[in-house]
Amino acid sequence: MSSSSTRSLATNVFDTGNYSTSLLRVESATVASCNSTSSTPLPPPKPLLIGMPSDDAGGEFPVLILLHGYLLLNSFYSQLILHVASHGFIVIAPQLYNVAGPDATAEITSAAAITNWLSEGLGHFLPPHVRPNLSKLALAGHSRGGKAAFALALKKGATTLKYSALIGVDPVDGMDKGKQTPPPVLTYIPHSFDLGMPVMVIGSGLGEIKKNPLFPPCAPKGVNHKDFFNECQTPACHFVVKDYGHLDMLDDDTKGIRGKATYCLCKNGKSREPMRRSIGGIIVAFMKAYLDGDITDLMAIRKGQETAPAEFETVEFLE
Q: SS3 of 172, please?
């Protein structure tokens, strides 16, 4: 278990928030069992990266579970996690797997197990003055993690806690319509998702475009954000970030072979910071609206009164 911290001041949702933040790594049950004792807190089913307001901030904070994209590391989302945490949220990013095939069933099951662990386990790993409010629990996922998040919200995994909001960050359900990966989530029936919670779907303007002839687009037509939003019921909102790609919300510097691959596989924008701050800001605004009951920022963004670093080519709401 290790931590790092940073501090800055701002109030705009697209800027770093008013809370100082820290990142905490928590090992999974498999690793922790080697060093466990009778007094050791129950470790999580999978390794976690937790972003939170720092100990000296204190208080009770809503919780967001963030599921990573296909073959990505949770650490690649560190800057996005800290952005959201700085606005008064606890963000939990599990490492669901290191290697995986086309079937997402195992990661859906793992995400459910992590959700079920929160009530008993999470508080033991947080500083004493940082308290999770699990009655305000949101679920988010990027790319294939977005598919997993929708699947979990659709009760394809058994959870003991109730989610209060769902966020799909450029979700993808396979290679093409008719080529969904198991378990399929999209039904292609408009407004068929019976989720019972508010939903936000975020898309990338360049996600449907190939980086080069050797690789397919990272968010193909027929299985991407448009299709997910089309199946949502009210209340739901849809934002598409113009001129940015499927992986442009990741950290500025993603290291290692996997990290370098994130610059090569998908059509990208000019830099990652504008996309990341834009997505971080609308996530914060959405959660403030539906977890805290403060719609000010979400409505300001909808009306164009609060401007994101990147342009939204689509802003639509189902009400």
A: coil
